[in-house]
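QA checklist item 7 of 12: single-chain prediction sanity check.
[x] sequence parsed
[x] length recorded as 142
[x] structure emitted
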Amino acid sequence: MKRPKDKVNRSAALVYRHARSGVEFLFVSTRRDRRRLVLPAGHLEKNESAEQTAIRETKEEAGAEIKLERYLGRFVHKKHSGKRVPSNVYLASLLWQGKTKECREVVWLRPDEIETSPFRIRRRLAKFVNLACRRLSVQIAA
């Protein structure tokens, strides 16, 4: 797996699964606003790799066991305070999903549902969904 060149202290996973209606991607609600969706992500713990962080945070926030497939790139999240926080983003396939340890909404969306979802999703995340669709050879309905 391609490794990030510089040190970023956060990692996220863009998790997909194959459903009857097509490929779906996993999002979780934020703690502050259950209507706003983000990728499962968090800070690296001591002696933890970026990959291990993405796996752990997805388990904690979405109750999902995943397999990382590839590094997708860096996503810069802008906090309410205005601080910009970069995260390494990995494409991952779902192995199993159970209950989440955190009180978050877990939502699966097809790429064509993201724009029309009643949830708020940052437009910059669409970049990673589009990249993942190209990697998975998935067509996005217009």
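[x] summary fact logged: The two ends are 31 Å apart (CA to CA).
[ ] second reviewer sign-off
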